[in-house]
Specification:
The structure holds 2 protein chains of 2 kinds. By secondary structure, chain A is an alpha+beta fold. In chain A, 46% of the residues lie in helices and 11% in strands. Chain A has a 5-stranded antiparallel beta sheet with strand order 1-2-3-6-7, sandwiched between helices. In chain A, a hairpin with a 6-residue loop joins strand 6 and strand 7. Chain B is of the alpha/beta class. The longest helix of chain B is centred in the first third of the chain and has 9 residues. Classes of the chains: A alpha+beta, B alpha/beta. Chains A and B meet through helix 7 and helix 9 of A and helix 1 and helix 2 of B.
Chain lengths: 368, 113
Amino acid sequence: MNRDEINRWIRYHSEISYALTMERTALESALIPVSAYILIACVECYRRYPEMIGEITGAVTPEELGRAGHDVTTQVDPVHVWAVPNFVLLGRKILMAASLVDPDDDALRIGTVLDFWARTSGAYRFDDGTHQAADAAGTATPYRAYVDDVAAACEPIAAKSGVSRLNALLTSYLFLLWFDTRSGYQDTGPYALADGRVLLLRRYNGLGVSHFPWSADVGATMPFTEVLGAFVLRDVELRVTDFGTSVTKPEDYWAHVESCTFFDVAAGALTPIGAAGRDALGIAAKSAQKQLYRMIAGMERSAKIDSGAYVYFTFLRPFAEIARVALDWTVPSASLDLYPFLSLIDGAATPPPDAPVDTPETYYAPLL
Amino acid sequence: MQEIGSGTRVFEAAPVRGTWRRLSSPDDVLVLMDTTAEGVVACVADAGATFLAPIFDELTAVVCLSGTPQSHIGIVSREYQVPCVMAAALTIEPEDDDEVEVDCSDTPGIIRA
């Protein structure tokens, strides 16, 4: 990827991620020091992802990885595809502010990551010329091959409140399990159905025991570990963001859910979860959430930062797993020189008053 | 009741009434988790989703002093269908256990006490 191409993609991500950030604004939590761990993780991403991507693409092409995201069992999904270049660019932004970016090395690092992302995202989006939902009026439909089967399995559910409660419990539990990131639950759509209805598909990822050390106890009793929720909406405008979040008009879409279902997708097939299974899943999620909250609340701040940084840094892991490449996911590792400063950040990382104000054009700086 | 603040509502919802509780630390949440958060209108500073996680389903409403409906706490409130006002600006802050009303029936969302 030449210098002009790199700068063109940097500008592309700058504009989209600026807009996403403005739409979301605040991300701090009184439970988890989110800003501090993001800074640590993104510095690690800038300094380590290019080499790790080289190992992954030595085994599997980016195009194959993108197409792997059409399978509901993988975590090649909107936020993971978005995150790989953006975490690196955020790390670069932090390091640039400290004059710690080497101009001679920067183009190669960024070029490697952007080439990986452009090829992966293009294939993920069926080579239709778009790379993100932001290019396509808020659409991301990787699971289109499943739509007929999923829609046929959706059924009106008398006790809608029970279904909405299960969805909420899973969503909330996954935010906690994934340290206040959206990577645990991912929305895709809208998938057009007959009569103007649309299908929203929601993946609830990694509900059980995973590579997260804190999942070992709390996830052990989850009756289902990989779940797909399907919601047929009528009279709702639906778009999804590159964070994998749905935005609807009206804002509360639940009154417009005509039918729905939940599938266990851990084994690679769509296996409907019946009422008893849904009840058990909801009870387990509620209990696991309480147990996990107490565990996180009892952690030292440094342990919370390390754990959150691990969640962020492993956004590349789904690609490595598909490629069957074993990589070192230890964090902190390449941020130790900055760790004492970055980990001190308390609350949102407020820039000094004289710092340049971000704009869509300057959110990420071009190559030096 | 008089209006004491307003902000961006996450979704349209009828007015609800509950008791005001400013929650600042995980210990505050654990107390409610071990008793009950039924009837509580939680006021929080930050917009992360995790802080209120184990009690969210019991809350009557949430007043967040920062963020937008697309912030994590806004997303979770939508899924739980717990009325929520984001980036709320308060002219006065109620005392804990004061009765308050959160009105998301129109824009902006209104807090009354």
